[in-house]
Backbone:
């Protein structure tokens, strides 16, 4: 889960038109009898804009259609029944609200369903001013949702990682824990995907460093050894570059790989056994960071 910026002013025309109609006819007052049209909030222009804003990834797990499951249009606040409050009519007025729609893979969407726990006081009817329908409106923020929203919250403040692809709540905070639990962000296929790629980095670094040790053992002068290290730096640097690339917002599970890079000394390095070139990797990474900053 990563922070995402979306321009709410660039609302799909199909949503603008339907909201004008809803306001004009007063059908919002129907509440539980409100006839939602999936062809509107799932319209191609809505789906395409959401997918573009989220780089083709699920807002929750950061998986892609290829890696996980087909993408769907998800309502952050449920438009019908609220699983955590059976007496609530649902956020019927947000069915076509642009800021309430985010892309989610079928698995995250199914896991979340109508769940929307809060810590504050829940709104049970629509505010008169449509500006107060936006996900970042103060009246909605006062609900204090436990489920993170990538456009309102910075997930990095609430979520952290283990070196093995497991997502965890930073300092055990309730919002991180709830988001992980509701969307099942540590389900087996996700952890497997993240771990396989993380293992590739560790194995590739260990292989390069082991080869460097073997070659250096055959060299006699310090100059020859430094030249050898310079050559292996190129190999190791290409692996570090790949890790940075995997941490880019457009990549699947970018939050995880960005975390591995930023916490390299605590996440990746310890997984390289002593005696197999861990120190070579450590020193090469330091040189890479100096060069990368420059």
Residues:
């Amino acid at each position: 889960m990563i922070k995402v910026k979306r321009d709410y002013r660039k609302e799909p025309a199909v949503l603008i038109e339907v909201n004008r109609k809803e306001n004009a006819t007063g059908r919002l007052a129907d509440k539980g009898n409100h006839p939602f049209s999936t062809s509107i909030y799932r319209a191609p222009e809505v789906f395409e804009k959401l997918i573009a804003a989220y780089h083709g990834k699920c807002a929750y797990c950061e998986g892609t259609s290829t890696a996980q499951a087909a993408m769907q249009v998800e309502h952050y606040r449920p438009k019908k029944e609220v699983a955590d409050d059976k007496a609530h009519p649902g956020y019927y007025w947000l069915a076509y609200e642009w800021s309430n729609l985010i892309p989610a893979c079928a698995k995250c969407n199914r896991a979340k369903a109508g769940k929307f726990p809060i810590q504050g006081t829940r709104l049970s009817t629509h505010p008169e001013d449509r500006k107060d329908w936006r996900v970042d409106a103060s009246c909605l923020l006062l609900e204090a949702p436990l489920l993170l929203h990538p456009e309102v919250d910075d997930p990095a403040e609430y979520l952290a990682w283990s070196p093995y692809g497991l997502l965890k709540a930073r300092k055990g905070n309730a919002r991180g824990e709830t988001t992980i639990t509701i969307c099942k962000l540590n389900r087996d296929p996700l952890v497997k995907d993240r771990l396989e790629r993380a293992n590739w980095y560790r194995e590739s670094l260990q292989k390069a460093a082991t080869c460097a040790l073997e070659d250096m053992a055959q060299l006699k002068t310090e100059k020859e050894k430094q030249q050898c290290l310079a050559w292996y730096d190129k190999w190791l640097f290409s692996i570090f570059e790949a890790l940075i690339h995997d941490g880019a917002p457009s990549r699947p599970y970018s939050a995880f790989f960005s975390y591995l890079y930023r916490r390299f000394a605590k996440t990746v390095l310890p997984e390289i056994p002593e005696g197999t070139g861990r120190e070579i990797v450590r020193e090469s990474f330091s040189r890479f960071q100096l060069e990368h900053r420059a």
